[in-house]
Specification:
The protein is mainly beta and 134 residues long. It has a 4-stranded antiparallel beta sheet with strand order 1-8-3-6.
Length: 134
C-alpha cells in the first residue's frame, strides 16, 4: 500500500506549537519513507514523524527534515504490529510570509506481517487441529 498525506504549514508556525496531523495506517512494515519539500521552502520549513511518544524519523530526535525543492526518500524496515496504527506528522515554519505544503509518502507492505502471523500460529499452536481444517 502506498500512502500520501499533505501537511499544510502556515507562515510563522513555531516549533513550540507545530502543525500536526494524525494519519491512520494498517498493520504492516513501512518499507519506504519520503518527505517532499517544494520549491520556496528554502530550509525554513521543518518536519518530523512521530509514533506514540517517540520521534521515528529523522533520528536523532533533536533534528528535523528540512530542504528546498527536494524529495528526501529512504528505504526502511519499520514494523507497525501493534495498535494504534497511527503516525503523527509534525511541521513548523520559520517563514514569516508564506504557507507551505509538505508531502509525506509511505510504502507499507502487509505481506511480511501476514507471513509472521502464520509462523506464529504454527509455532505457538494457535492453528485449529488438522481434522478441523478439512
Amino acid at each position: 500500500m502506498f500512502y500520501e498525506y499533505p501537511l499544510i504549514i502556515p507562515a510563522s508556525t513555531t516549533q513550540a506549537a507545530p502543525v500536526t496531523s494524525e494519519i491512520q495506517i494498517v498493520k504492516g512494515v513501512i518499507s519506504y519513507v519520503e518527505v517532499v519539500f517544494p520549491d520556496g521552502c528554502n530550509n525554513l520549513v521543518h518536519a518530523h514523524i512521530i509514533r506514540g511518544l517517540h520521534q521515528v524519523w529523522p533520528t536523532p530526535p533533536a533534528v528535523s527534515f528540512s530542504d528546498n525543492n527536494f524529495h528526501i526518500g529512504f528505504k526502511e524496515d519499520f514494523p507497525i504490529t501493534e495498535p494504534p496504527f497511527i503516525l503523527k506528522l509534525t511541521g513548523w515554519s520559520n517563514d514569516d510570509y508564506y504557507p507551505h505544503t509538505i508531502r509525506f509518502r509511505f510504502q507499507l507492505n502487509m505481506q511480511p506481517i501476514l507471513q509472521q502471523s502464520i509462523i506464529d500460529d504454527i509455532l505457538f499452536g494457535t492453528l485449529p487441529p488438522e481434522s478441523e481444517m478439512n
